[in-house]
Amino acid sequence: MGNCASAINSFVQRGTRSSPSAAPGMSASRRTSSSATTGKLSTLSTSTFMPSTISGVSVDDDYPDGQILESPDLKIYTFAELKSATRSFRPETVLGEGGFGKVYKGWVDEKTLNPSRSSIGMVVAVKKLNPESVQGMEQWQSEVNFLGRISHPNLVKLLGYCMDDNELLLVYEFMAKGSLENHLFRRGAVYEPLPWSLRLKILIGAARGLAFLHSSERQIIYRDFKASNILLDSHFNAKLSDFGLAKHGPDGEESHVTTRVMGTYGYAAPEYVSTGHLYVKSDVYGFGVVLLEMISGLRALDPSRQNEKVNLVNWAKPLLADRRKLSQVMDSGLEGQYSSKGALLAAQLTLKCLNGDPKSRPSMKEVVEVLEQIESMKSRVRREPRHSGSSLTRRGQGYSPRSDSGSSRNNSRGR
């Protein structure tokens, strides 16, 4: 790790805070100054992220709230500062744990982002690398390079980082409602299913975030779209987290990039798993899997189900294609909350996203348009969902990138 830290240190330039001017397979060192507040990573060229034109429409026109910076605008922390912000990384501050390491709740001053000692100020999430993690430096660097330069309402904000001796940490905005996975799959008498209207809101937000990533001149392939990587703020606005596997799309006339297979079983596109060919629309397949999870209420992979239902996509695709059998796929907890036309459109969209040929899948911009069309139908539904804000609050404990549940960790990062 010391050698890795020295390597990345060679291209990190520490200075004053500036204003913005515009990874391992499938899953499976120097002291910084506390006064330094900005790290500019020089490994990515400015032109890589400049706005471009997609299908004749300016990216700025389609995504007025999105921004791509010429250089990262992040606060640099020392390890001692983040130790103070998290109350010495006490167990009670742990929000979750994933392949990268544990995620802790911390507190910083809302204006300066300096650590706050007394559990006051703004809550943040601090992800701390486990020294034994197989993800390590490469994915830490990817997070800083990508999230440090892109801004969109549906992408989690990276606020700062620490590279202090052998310690690698990342500081994010705190997402009060936790992950979509926590809300969608938890069962019990006190938990009501996520209502149809909220599922659509979350899907649209996540789709907009993915569409924005695909809209830059050198498209960004997210590569690990799944329910545990979709985080929710206090108003259930969806934001994509964990950019450790993000990768630039193909150059010029190329249709794909060839890379080592990384991601999560059940969500990764079949062409990517079998050949290592990664397309921008490989992300669309992953979105289709999550869309199927949302309409069915079932996990993509679940060994506890009957043999034919272990793999949700394989079981559900024939049923989605037959409107007479669609009810067998729909989550029974959603009964009465959606129109039959809305459910049919959702099923058709799911099938298109899950098409075996990446060229035949819709763009994420097209996905957003269809989801918005389905959402507009909600006013025609007679019965309102019974979901209350109080029960939702019990379902999420507050979350940040990445604190996957145990089931997700078992299916990801290892091939």
UniProtKB/TrEMBL annotation:
Chief subcellular location: membrane
Annotated function: May be involved in plant defense signaling.
Residues given in the record as ATP binding sites: K128
PANTHER family (UniProt xref): OS01G0588500 PROTEIN-RELATED
EC number(s) given by UniProt: 2.7.11.1
GO terms assigned for molecular function: ATP binding; protein serine/threonine kinase activity
Name by which UniProt lists this protein: non-specific serine/threonine protein kinase
Family stated for the protein in its record: Belongs to the protein kinase superfamily. Ser/Thr protein kinase family.
Compartments it resides in: Cell membrane
GO cellular component: plasma membrane
InterPro entries reported in the protein's UniProt record: Kinase-like_dom_sf, Plant_Ser_Thr_Prot_Kinase, Prot_kinase_dom, Protein_kinase_ATP_BS, Ser-Thr/Tyr_kinase_cat_dom, Ser/Thr_kinase_AS
Residues covered by the Protein kinase domain: 89-374
Stretches for region Disordered: 12-43, 375-415
Pfam family name, one: PK_Tyr_Ser-Thr
Domain of life: Eukaryota
